[in-house]
Design the sequence.
C-alpha cells in the first residue's frame, strides 16, 4: 500500500490534508475522515475532495515547501471551506466553483502565515467562509442545503454519544457513526490526542448544559467540537500537558458559549472553529508568558 502512495503522491498529500483537520499527519486518518463525511453526505464528501485537491494543487504550483505539502498543511483549511459551503448551501454551480476557489485561496493564506511563523490553525478557513457566507446570503438567493433543515431524532443514548458527536461536528457531520469513525481515525494516529479530545468533548457538553444551552444542540456535539480541537493541540504524555489541555479547553468553551449566546457571529454563518483558534492563541500566549517567567 505504501508503494501505491509513492506512485501517487498527490493522493497521499490530499489524504494527509484531510487528516490535518484534527492535526493528524496521517493518510489513514484522512481516509477514515473522508469515509465518515461521505456517510453523512455525498455532496460534502465530493466537496472535501475538490477543495483539498485545489489547496494542495495550488501549493504545488506555487512551489511551496515540499515537506509542508507532504504533511498536508495546505489541505485542512481548504477541506473545511469545501465541507462548510456544501453543508450550508444547496450545491449549485456557483457553490462548486467557490468550493474550488476557496480551497485554493485557503492554501495561499495558510502559506502567508506559515512564512510568518504564526500558528493560525484553521483561521484561513474561518475568514474565507465568513466572507463567502456573508456574500452568498446578501447577494444571492441560493437556498440552504437539506442537511440544515433535517430533523435530529433523539435516542436513549444521546448523553453517551454527545462525546463522540463532538468529533463529528468538527467536520460538520451530525451522524452518530461519523462521530465514532472520526474518533477512531484520531485514535489510530494518536491515542492520547483522541482520549484528551474525548474528555474535552464531555467537559464541553457538561459545562454548556450547566450554562443552560439547548440540550438538543449539546447532544449533537455543537458545544464540544471546538474543545476537541483545543485539547488535541496541547495533548501529550507529560503531566503538564494535561494542565495546558484543561486551560485551553476551559477558555475555548467560555468563548464558544459567549459567542453563541450573544449571537455575535450569526451574520457570517456562525462561530465555526473560531473559539478553538481564539482559545488556543490565548493559551499559547499564557504558556509563553509562564515559560518566560519560569526561566
Sequence:
Amino acid at each position: 500500500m505504501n508503494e501505491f502512495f509513492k506512485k501517487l503522491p498527490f493522493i497521499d498529500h490530499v489524504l494527509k490534508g484531510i487528516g490535518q483537520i484534527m492535526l493528524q499527519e496521517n493518510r489513514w486518518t484522512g481516509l477514515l475522515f473522508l469515509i465518515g463525511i461521505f456517510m453523512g453526505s455525498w455532496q460534502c464528501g465530493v466537496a472535501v475532495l475538490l477543495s483539498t485537491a485545489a489547496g494542495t494543487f495550488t501549493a504545488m504550483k506555487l512551489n511551496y515547501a515540499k515537506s509542508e505539502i507532504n504533511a498536508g498543511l495546505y489541505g485542512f483549511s481548504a477541506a473545511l471551506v469545501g465541507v462548510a459551503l456544501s453543508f450550508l448551501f444547496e450545491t449549485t454551480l456557483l457553490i462548486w466553483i467557490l468550493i474550488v476557489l476557496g480551497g485554493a485561496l485557503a492554501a495561499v493564506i495558510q502559506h502567508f502565515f506559515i512564512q510568518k511563523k504564526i500558528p493560525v490553525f484553521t483561521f484561513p478557513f474561518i475568514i474565507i467562509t465568513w466572507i463567502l457566507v456573508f456574500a452568498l446570503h446578501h447577494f444571492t438567493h441560493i437556498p440552504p442545503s437539506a442537511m440544515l433543515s433535517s430533523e435530529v431524532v433523539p435516542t436513549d443514548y444521546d448523553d453517551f454519544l454527545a462525546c463522540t458527536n463532538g468529533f463529528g461536528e468538527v467536520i460538520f457531520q451530525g451522524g452518530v457513526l461519523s462521530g465514532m469513525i472520526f474518533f477512531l481515525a484520531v485514535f489510530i494516529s494518536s491515542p492520547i490526542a483522541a482520549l484528551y479530545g474525548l474528555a474535552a468533548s464531555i467537559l464541553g457538553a457538561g459545562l454548556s448544559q450547566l450554562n443552560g444551552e439547548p440540550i438538543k444542540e449539546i447532544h449533537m456535539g455543537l458545544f464540544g467540537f471546538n474543545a476537541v480541537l483545543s485539547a488535541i493541540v496541547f495533548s501529550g504524555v507529560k503531566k503538564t500537558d494535561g494542565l495546558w489541555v484543561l486551560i485551553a479547553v476551559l477558555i475555548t468553551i467560555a468563548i464558544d458559549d459567549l459567542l453563541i449566546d450573544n449571537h455575535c457571529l450569526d451574520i457570517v454563518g456562525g462561530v465555526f472553529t473560531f473559539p478553538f483558534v481564539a482559545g488556543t492563541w490565548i493559551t499559547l500566549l499564557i504558556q509563553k508568558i509562564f515559560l518566560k517567567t519560569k526561566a
